[in-house]
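User: Please predict structures.

Assistant: First:
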Amino acid sequence: MLRPEMSASYQELSEDVERASEHPTDEREGEMEVHEDASSIILPDSELGTTAPSLRFSKTCLKNVFSVILLFIYLLLMAVAVFLVYQTISDFREKLKHPVMSVSYKEVSLYDAPGIAFYPGKARLLSCKHHYYDHIPPLINPGQPGDIECTTQRINYTDPFTNQSMKHALVVQGPRDVKKKELVFLQFHLNGTDQDFSAIDYLLFSSFEEFINSPERAEFMKDCESSYSSWKFSGGFRTWVKMSLVKTKEEDGSETVEFKQETSVVNYIDQRTKPRSDQLFFVVFEWKDPFIQTVQDIVTANPWNMIALLCGIFLALFKAADFAKLSVKWMIKIRKRHLKRSHQTSHSWRSSLGLQKGASL
């Protein structure tokens, strides 16, 4: 009984040895596959699960922080641009309300001869002459009628302020040639007066030619007296008047003319032999310089500059808004990618853990 059983077991053992000798690599390959599977299961959990995900997380975090910083910077720039728009519009409106006064000078060699209107009252014009280069010859027979070489015109008109009393004016043509320093020298004589002070009023207006060509000279003089100021010069002195012309341009395009004066007064030494109670008046009119002063209000706000600035600001706003929108989209995309990778990493880690448990069992 024992011999047949031993012979059968021995035969099975020999068959196994022969099978192993015929296929010696199969078992090795199986062992290698088992070891490779085990190593593939262990490596993601030891290396990829600790180092690579942490590196990816740190890079993603830095990118997100950098994107947020850029977004805040562009939001700040947008706020600054909005403030600049508001400030630009406010400055433009302010400059429109408060124009700047501009003064320019125009050089001329000849002026339009001004008109000089005298209101002598009881005084009488003795002489009137044109001289040049600031030279006035010595007086000959002062107090006696002399040559009247000026263009004169007498005019009577109603007082524009009272509309009752009549005014009597002697209009004389003023100097023209400023390069040659032309001047007009006049002498008046007053026999006597019951007033404590003696003076003669005069009025300057821009053009003697306009007065001569005016069909209504009385109305012309009334308008001049309403528009221009009047001055005085006293008896017993030589009053030297130096004139300058100022033109002012109004907002409606009209132009007004004003005279500025510098006067110097010199005492007259009466050398007549007989004592007299009369008064002598001497006055000189001359242009101060060859420059006509023009005054006008200028609006310094340039609408084209403001439009160009606003276009640049709005372009910067649109670019900033576009960049902010792209930044937000990019942050959302990075976030979704990070969540996807995290989900894949956790899923692979769970599967590797399950394989390790199966291998250990």
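Second:
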Amino acid sequence: MEAYNSQVSQRIATIAAHLNPSNHSQTEGLLGLERGNCRAKGGSTGFKVAILGAAGGIGQPLAMLMKMNPLVSVLHLYDVVNTPGVTADISHMDTGAVVRGFLGQQQLEEALIGMDLVIIPAGVPRKPGMTRDDLFNINAGIVMTLCEGIAKCCPKAIVNLISNPVNSTVPIAAEVFKKAGTFDPKRLLGVTMLDVVRANTFVAEVLGLEPREVDVPVVGGHAGVTILPLLSQVKPPCSFTQKEIDYLTDRIQNGGTQVVEAKAGAGSATLSMAYAAVKFADACLRGLRGDAGIVECAYVASHVTELPFFASKVRLGRSGVEEIQPLGPLNEYERVGLEKAKKELAGSIQKGISFFNK
């Protein structure tokens, strides 16, 4: 009976440690549990993933979708507010990933130790009339703080950065990692997957195809004219009228603004962004696992153009970005678009670097 009671106490303590990480040291002291072994029985083998900003508009659906991913064994949810509730809620899902919540700056480092992949949707969303650049000062500071934690606690993790404006926050993250001596350009990726998801959807509508059959490369950056869909390289091969090209390019570039205006002050694209982020995170995890031929678009340190950062197709693998693919043949419309994109992008990159150097 005593052995049974001890077993029950240990199981209860294990569950408590998942849901209340701040209390884990006291519980473990009583029962000799090691946090690293606080695993649900039969928990899946896989990767350890942290979401920073997990209680926000993107963070919550992102956390739910990552809990459903069979490649995730441990899921850490961090935010400055409301993480205990989100953690309790998501931990009830009957999938293998063990969920732990972390609340506030004092628990950031604990949330990051040992992570393989860190996804960052933290920050404030756009409201009607705002550009992604209007978010800059608030989100730039948040990204700096979080990346300092990553440099200290999991410098080898793959980082997926979603916080806008991505064109500027990725250069800021790179500067933080350089200062800490941990910068690996293969492991820092700005998530532009939502542009690709939108492009696939809108092109499929025009062509009358199933969106999952369509692949549209989207290069450049992740705001306005820096978003450059390469409609001449769509798979399956097809051709568009000039009117269709103008319509599709404009719709892909302004898809985010359409959602911001439709939500009328209630936020920006959160659900489609969470979907796109999970699609991209899954590709990164499959790369880490060693799967071959994983190619997605991402905003990375790059030599594809003269700019230090640029979004294009990259091959993902065990070390993150294993190859940055060339842009391929562009038509005249795309070459003009590329020059516009580069001009705008250069300013955004410099803005990020200047913020860090302030």
